[in-house]
Amino acid sequence: MTMLSKFPYLRQDLLASIVVFLVAVPLCVGVAVASGVPAEVGLVTGIVGGLVTGLMRGSSLQVSGPAAGMTVLVFEAVSEFGVATLGVIVLIAGLLQLAMGFLGIGRWFRAISVSVVEGMLCGIGLVIIAGQLYAAAGMKAPETGIGKILGLPGAFADALGSTEALASLATGMGTIAVIVLWRKTPKGVRAVPGALAAVILATVASSAFSLPVATVQVEGLLGVIQPPGAEAFGELVSPAVWGTIAAFALIASAESLFSAAAVDRLHDGPRTEYNKEMIAQGAGNTVCGLLGALPLTAVIVRSSANVNAGAKTKASRVLHGVWLLLFAAAMPWALALIPLPALAGILVHAGWKLIPFRQTAALWRGHRGEALILVVTAVSIVVVNMFEGVLIGLALSVVKTAWQASHAKLEVIDKGAGPIQVHLSGNATFLRLPRILDTLEALPEDRPVELDLSGVHHLDHACRTALENWAERHSAAGTAPVKVTEGAKATRPENEKPVTAV
Question: Compositionally biased, Basic and acidic residues: which spans (predicted)?
Answer without folding.
Answer: 489-502
